[in-house]
Amino acid sequence: MRKLYHALCKAEVVVCGTGFIFLVAFVFLSAILRFFRISMSWNIDLAMFLLAWTAFLGADIAWRSGQLVGVDLVTRRFPRKIQKIVEILLYIIILCALVVIMVFGIRLAITERVRKYQSIPIPYSLVTLSIVVTALSMVVSTMLKIRRSILNFNADSNKNETTGGAE
Questions:
Q1: Fewer beta carbons within 10 angstroms: which end of the chain, N or C?
Q2: What is the pLDDT of residue 2?
Q3: Looking at the predicted structure, is the pLDDT value of residue 63 above 50?
Q4: Phi, psi at residue 95, to the nearest 5°?
C-alpha cells in the first residue's frame, strides 16, 4: 500500500510539472500568435484547463511536503505537548474542510457535466474534478499527518524535555 501511495505521489508531481510546462507553452504560443493577429482560442481554453489542474495538484504537493506557509506566532511559545494537541486539532479541522470541499466539488462536477468549453469539446466537470481529486489526495495526506503526529506525540515531547528545548 505504501509503494502505491508513493507511486501516486510521484505520478502527481510528473503530471503537475508536465501540465505546467504545457500551460506556459500554450500561453506563450497564444501571445506569439496574437502578435501576428492569428487567434487560436482553443489554446487559451486548454491553458485554463491546465491552470486549474496544475494549481490544485501543486497545492497538494506543497501540503504533502510541508511547503505551505504556516503561522506559529502564538503556538511556538506553548509547551511541546500543547503544540502537538493544537497541531492535531488543526489537522482534524483541515480534514473536515477537505471532506466538505470534496462533497460540494462532486455536486458541482455533476452540475457542470453538460457545460463545455467554447472552443474544445471538454466538459467543465473535468476542471471541477481537479478540486475533488486534489481534495481526496489531501485527505489521505492529512490522515497520514494526523497518524504521524499521534504516533510521535510522546517521542517529540520526551526529546524536547531531555534536550532542554533545543532542536
A1: N
A2: 87
A3: yes
A4: -60, -45
What pLDDT, on a 0 to 100 scale, did the predictor assign at position 108?
A: 94
Helix (H/G/I), strand (E/B), else coil: 67: coil
Cell of 164: 532542554
Region for residue 5 given its phi and psi (left: phi exceeds 0; alpha: psi -120 to 50; beta: otherwise): alpha
How far is the C-alpha of 34 from the C-alpha of 124, rounded, in Å? 25
DSSP string computed for 98-135: HHHHHHHHHHHHHHTTS-B-SSS--BTHHHHHHHHHHH
What is the radius of gyration, based on Cα positions, of the chain?
21
Q: What is the pLDDT of residue 97?
A: 98
Helix (H) or strand (E) holding 33: helix 2-35
